[in-house]
Every structure is written in C-alpha cells, then in structure tokens.
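Progress against Task 2.4 (sequence-to-structure conversion) is shown through the following example record, which the project officer requested during the mid-term review.
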Amino acid sequence: MKVYKTIIIDDEPLAIDVITHHLKRFSNFEVTHVFTDAVEAFKFLKEEHTIDLVFTDIAMPEISGIELVKLSKANSKFIMTTSFNKYAVESFDLEVVDYVLKPVSFERFCKAISRFEKLQSNEKQHIIEPSFFVKEGDEFIKILVSDIDYIEGLKDYAKIITGNNYCLALKTLKSLEAKLKPYQFMRIHKSYIVPLPKISQYNGKCVLINNSEIPVGNSYREELKSYLNSNKL
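Structure tokens generated for the chain above:
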C-alpha cells in the first residue's frame, strides 16, 4: 500500500487539529510535518523533501497559500483550505487538487482525498516505464530498464540479466553504459554494469544484487564508494 507523505500548513492551531484528526482515519496518509509559519514551510519544501500532499491555508501572514504554491518547485500536490470563497478561481488556476472551505467537514474532506487519489492513479497509468529493444535473430525483445539486474560484457556481446532470464545484445559495454547512465547504472568492472539502486551489499571486493556476487574492479572502486557514501545514513 502506497503511503502518502503529507504536511499541513496553517496559522490556526484549531484548523491544523481538524485536518490532522480527519487524516488519522486514512491509514495510507502520514503527516510528517506541521507548520504554523508559512515561511518555514516554504523553506522546508525548497529543500526538496519528498512530500506527496500539502494541506495549506490561504490567508496567512508573510506568504499566502497561493504564493506558496506559485513559489514552490516541489512536485507536491496541494489542497487549499480557507474561510473565504473569494480565492477559489485563483486557486484552481494553479491546478491545485481541491479548494475546501472551513470549517472542514469530514464528508467534504473525503471528497478532497478522493480527488487526490484519483489524480495519483491517473498519473501512474500515464507513466511510461523506460525500456529498450534487443535484437535476437529476427526477433526484437523488449527489456524494461527496471528489470535489469546487471550486464556482463562478453567480447562483442553484452549479456543482460533480468532475474532468471537473460538475453544477448550485439553491443559493447561502453555503448550500454552511456545509454543507461541516466537511469542510475554504473560501470563497476571492465566486464560489468549494475543498477545502483539494486545493490544490497558491498564488501570492498564485490557487490551483491539479488544473490549474485559481481566483482568490483580497482579502477572503478572509488566512484562506487563515492556513490555509497553519498547515500548512507
């Protein structure tokens, strides 16, 4: 079950309590932060935290909810809450999920949540997963980038391992390295390319991906360690 990370922004503590109380009845929503200061909320969103949904009041000092949406470069979705209906047109021009008048009843809150979930579902359906085709004989086989466990170089061929299956592509590792680099693949050995997010363990000599041990070459070790250090807790 997808859990949506949520924050609430409102300078009225009572309004925050209402939204928090409503959200507790939805197990797939997690309130990670609450802000009574819109400036602090803006700074938080600017730091590129992964937030799926933002509930924000409109009429707040220093930065209004509308200004917050305009200034925010985050990929978060917004539900606007306010005591005034005069902001409705401007809010929807910003393509927010919903515009809800206070006091927010649970029935109206459910409609807003339903709109958000429907929007998420529609966006997910339109995501095209990156892939490419490998020619084997007279056939073209589609390979999803997310299915690749690793790639082994075999002279003029590349062996692309996907789970318990594999296919051979008449490609050099150098050409595949350039093609797959945008998808977080790294050359870790003269004969191997791996998807970095799938690495489950590294012991200094090899990495572990789905129970397969893949050697790390001396000349590639520092770049791999740099990546691992940048992603450690």
